[in-house]
Amino acid sequence: MKRQSRSLLTMMILVSAAMAGELPIGAPLPSPDYLMKAVGNADVSLNSSMGEAGLVVIFSCNTCPWVLAWQDRYIKLADAFIPKGFGVIAINSNEAARNRGDNFDDMTTHAIENGYNFTYALDGGARLATEFGASRTPHVFVFDAGGTLVYRGAIDDNARRPEQVENEYLADALSAMLAGQKIVQNSTKALGCTIKFAR
Hints:
By secondary structure, this protein is an alpha+beta fold. 33% of the residues lie in helices and 20% in strands.
């Protein structure tokens, strides 16, 4: 009975999120066992990508100027926080742009050329982007080890000029989690290109 209640609660939260926009803070990890093809040809899920400390999900792509400006910081964050127990996965949901630089072969080339040190997976049909209410690339969602959403939004407050960043939203959230502290700013505005959903 408890399992059925939790399943019903999860469904209600996801339906509510889809109607309202972004997944709300406190929501459970959507479709944790949904399999995606990742660079390297492995099948991965959000559950299999979860680390002992939690999971960072970044909706991303190969072609958006905002992603190109921020992706070096993806790599630095992965370097810093994967050894501390976080899983990091970037997800390409640009379903309507697969023939314009965002197909799986393009993803593989892009990941290799840019030295990606984290999982990069293809979201067929943009299923996860829809369930998360993700709208931008990049759009970040952080889950704790129990699969509860604790941060969503931007990586930091200056995509174009990393030397002028004043608020490292994502790094601050992850550091707070490791210290067992409350995340001071658990929601920020995601900035970037719109995700290219199929019509």
